[in-house]
Amino acid sequence: ISGYTLTVQASDNGNPPRLNTTTVNIDVSDVNDNPPVFSKGNYSVIIQENKPIGFSVLQLVVTDKDSSHNGPPFLFTILSGNEENTFQINQQGALTTTAALNRKVRDHYFLHVKVADNGKPPLSSLTYIDIRVIEESIYSPAILPLEIFITAFGEEYSGGVIGKIHATDQDVYDTLTYSLDPKMESLFSVSSTGGKLIAHKRLDVGQYLLNVTVTDGKFTTAADITVHIRQITQDLLNHSIAIRFANLAPEEFIGDYWRNFQRALRNILGVRRNDIQIVSLQPSDPPSNLDVLLNIEKSGSSQHPMKILLHKINSSVPDLEEILGVRIIDVFHKLCAGLDCPLKFCEEKVTVDENIMSTHSTARLSFVTPRHHRTAVCLC
């Protein structure tokens, strides 16, 4: 408690007694009784040789429970392990190099570091920093091209996370940094450390080509990212086909089955592969199963007769299951089984919810689709 306010009353012994009150303010000042504390008792750092002088090795974080005048500014001192003056620490706790590191000359440093606070008398704490010097990068990072398909109900896509760029490096301790062609930064961005790709604002339907680079600090590699934004209409939804797969996650379907499934359907239906498009992907009930909503177009964007498509797909389910190695539970067009309604009067209503967009991404493919709902009504 940093302060007290007391009300004191004095009264005499008269009859009747006379009295008066006054206020006493008591401020409790801070005594420097807490030393500054490092965020860790000891630190381990791995650094590649031949980094430029002034390279940032580590940022030390220190806290002090005392009030501000007994805390910062802190004084950092390297007590031992820095006999060649290879490192320095500024008063913000940043450890940097003052000389080039060569692992053949010395590959290990063990620094004993003290921090003192600004109190009178000052209090201090100690920590140890174990620094290992390894060889500099010898491998370029590898980055995979990514193709992204976005389903938009309308003429624009409102934006959000649309995929993740995958890059690897055979140098075990390399840190990869991602960047995007500045020309596209008004429309897209990429997180520098994680490779997460984000669409910024309302994007028109169409195709976008992005150039993404990844660097390990020495080598830089680039890859092309293609973003397709496709418009769906209510008429397209009305002619869509839903297929339910057993025990399949969306990412598993995209990464392991989608291209083969698309190719197999192309052969069965006699259409081009790109005429078979995913409208929506979502876990079904139970969630271990997967509902895939498809649109199948003719050249010229007209629709195939639904009865013919459904008949061909349903009659080919055993072949599809054998090709894919996954079980197909059902192929839906009309949800009429539970209705007391003649089939010709049963109408299915398919809607999508643009407020619930899901991104399912693998190393090479990403689909951003709205949640869909299918209901049946009797018109008779």
Automatic annotation (TrEMBL):
Keywords: Calcium, Membrane, Repeat, Transmembrane, Transmembrane helix
SMART domains in UniProt: CA
GO biological process: homophilic cell adhesion via plasma membrane adhesion molecules
Molecular function terms from GO: calcium ion binding
Keyword Signal: no
Entry keyword Zinc: no
Protein name stated in the entry: FAT1 protein
Taxonomy of the source species: Eukaryota, Metazoa, Chordata, Craniata, Vertebrata
